[in-house]
Write a structure and sequence with these properties.
With 232 residues, this protein is an alpha/beta fold. The chain contains four helices and ten strands. The protein has helices at 7-45, 59-62, 164-171, 206-228, and strands at residues 2-3, 50-51, 66-73, 79-86, 89-100, 106-115, 132-141, 158-159, 176-183, 229-230. The strands form two sheets. A five-stranded mixed barrel has the order 3-5-6-9-7. Strands 1-10 form a two-stranded antiparallel ribbon. α2 (59-62) links the parallel β2 (50-51) and β3 (66-73). The protein starts with a strand and ends with a strand.
Amino acid sequence: MIIRPQFWPTVTTVLMLIALLSLGTWQVQRYGWKSDLIAKLQSRSDSTPAALPGADAKPDDIEFLRVRATGTFAHEYEFFLFGRSLRGRPGLHVLTPLRRADGKGYVLIDRGWVPFERRAPATRVKGQIEGEVTFEGIVRIARGPGMFTPENDIAGNNWYFVDPVSMARKAQIGSLSGYYVLSGAKDTPGGYPAPRQWRIDIRNHHVEYAITWYLLAVALVVIFVLYHRQKS
């Protein structure tokens, strides 16, 4: 059997092969990154609660850190984060500034999930806790919108991503840290907002994705050979 490659099919195949191998290698790199992320998340989320970080803390040093927060909620400045569900039921998250008891300003607290019909504070009066509170939570970094995330409706108080700068400006409370805290409170009077809205079980299927891309590369080479083979 003799292989006589044709010019354009060969060029196309080479370019496709490079792309497939690059995608496979990228997935291997993503697997390493995701494995480190999961290990960091599990380690920090299971650690002894630390004090709330300062505003100048480095994001990579504090994300997923378990913290203990103490302060007073400013319920009059609630923000509503859309695109959230609980066991398949659509709704939103309630984010409330907490006036820190340590005198270091405010920090934004994701208090948890409510159904759309409980958006109005008057429908969950028991959950509007007054006075100083102490609870544990997990730090998340406000990283801005994704490629397909809608713009925040600031005037209507409808938020699709956490924006501490705009939220602080709307509430006229000076400034908010670049991170927020997912509340780990055991419960909320009246049931809403429902706290502890985070997932520890992050999926890591990048090895399977890498194998798929590499197998496609092998299949491409086989097809190329079969297409160009000639009998001697």
